[in-house]
Amino acid sequence: MATQNTINSNLLKGRIIAHVGKALLIEDDSGEVFRCHKRSKLEASAVGDFVLWEKIDDSTGRVEEISERRSLLSRPAKNGSTRPAAANIDQIIAIVATQPRSDLLLLDQYLVISENQHIPVVILMNKTDLLDSDKGETTATILADYLALGYPIIETSAKDHLGLQPLLDILHDKTSILVGQSGVGKSTITNALLPDLNLQTKEVSQRSGLGRHTTTSSTLYKLSDGGEIIDSPGVNIFGLANISEPDLAYGYIDIRRFAEQCRFANCKHINEPKCAVKDAIESGELARDRYLRYLKLLDKLAI
Ligand code: GDP
Ligand code: ZN
User: Which of 5, 181, 221, 268 is exposed most, by the fewest CB atoms within 10 A?
Assistant: First the structure.
């Protein structure tokens, strides 16, 4: 992590807002963006990393040091290894909708990462305008299991600009990452939150030297009233990187609660005798659907 070898008075503070090819886009304290390369000895970097860098000219620089991170989300990489995906995140905004149908397995995956990394999560139900009231569809019924577990849940209809202020309040003065399956409305929400998005994107593309900024990598945007959001394309931004079988059970806060009472300390809650988790399902204290998703993710870990 941070190396203390050189005390260089020319070093400036900055934050990585995007990776473009091998270059990094660094935003300095005044909001100016510079295209930088990093010293080859430096470890892999992530969007959201705070850095110390040196200016080369009006638009370029060199990153000398990556500052210590308060949190790090990783993504799966080749050969079972992981790579940093986003750094210094204060909260995860996990977005769901009814169209495409809520992927609760993916939501659980985000929650497992959130619990294990100790990064708070807020569940955001977008497209509330599409809820079918004739069928009695509400956010509370669709997300009943999560509501019961105490996860914070908010609602938006990004298309109609509804619910944006409560969302902005939650995002205030924090660095948040927006995640969710493709089509839930991540870009629509980002656009609605950032009236000057085109300006920010233009600045980024000019500095990247690529003409048009490609949205293949995560980008950090500043909110006008304080706070930053990281827009992460691709659902699998962190997958189940670094998650072991015990971590998975820990990440299901409802399973975790009963697991301590299982006969075997290494119980996986599949078909072991005297499993308190399975007993809790039979007694109705633990949601069966959540447990079934736990088993699916357990299978996925084994691959
Ligand atoms: P992303 O893949 O998560 O970035 O999703 P997009 O932002 O591209 O949105 C996918 C589609 O859903 C687009 O056609 C949007 O116009 C639409 N959409 C986004 N938010 C809402 C909403 O609140 N209500 C409705 N009805 N449609 C929305
Ligand atoms: Zn058990």
Answer: 5
CA 259 to ligand 2 centroid distance, Å: 5
Give me the domain span that covers residue 123.
86-238
Q: Which residues pair with 75 in a beta bridge?
A: 83
Element (H, E) at 52: strand 50-55
- How far, in Å, CA of 178 to CA of 256, rounded? 26
Put simply, whether the predicted model's pTM sits higher than 0.90 gets the answer yes
Residue 218 burial class via C-beta count within 10 angstroms: exposed 0-12, middle 13-18, buried 19 and up:
buried
CA of 271 relative to ligand 2 center, distance in Å: 8
Is residue 76 domain-resident? Answer: no
Q: For residue 92, what is the domain's CATH number?
A: 3.40.50.300
Q: Is the dihedral of CA 258, 262, 268, 273 positive or negative?
A: negative
Cβ of 164 closer than 6 Å to ligand 1, yes or no, is: no
On average, the pLDDT of the chain sits at 90
**Shared domain check, 272 and 255:** yes
**Tokens linked to 279:** 């007993």
How confident is the model over 104-137, as pLDDT tens digits? 999 999 999 999 999 999 999 999 999 998 999 9
